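[agent] plan:
  1. take the single chain provided in the ticket
  2. run structure prediction with default settings
  3. attach structure tokens to the ticket
  4. add a short note for the reviewer (M.T.)
[agent] executing step 1
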Amino acid sequence: MAQDASRPASAPRSSLPLLLLLINACVLLYGPVAARATGTGYIIHMDKSAMPRYHSGIPTAATASPNLNSASGLWQAFKFGEGVNIGMINTEVWPESASFHDAGIPPVPSTNSMWRGTCEPGVDFTPSMCNRKLILSERATCTRAWLPPTPA
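[agent] step 2 finished; step 3 output follows
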């Protein structure tokens, strides 16, 4: 059977969806990243020139997609995020914010749908804070700390 070009040879199949979600999150928030499978997990490297992008205002819906090169690169290699549902990725989710209000949002899909996952408890976050807009939460750290050390 041919190896999937978007998956490192030693990548465990069960961890691939979370890795793709994390890579897509890092690409959207910080810029180019690359993942390398190791014996115990993944090492993620980010382009040293990548800078976080911050937007003002309180978005309640995305009206445009990120300007990524669709002809080549990681975005294409990871099948343009196919099968990954991203509502909002933010390491500092504030469920009380107006951007997370769920007025007018239809009910969360049933458990037998494509939606999988749960709202996991975390620092100052309980599953009861989830609603029809924030339907799942999982801690995934994406910071510039992943950059390799600068040579002396």
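[agent] step 4 note for reviewer: Strands lie at 33-37, 42-46.
[agent] ticket updated
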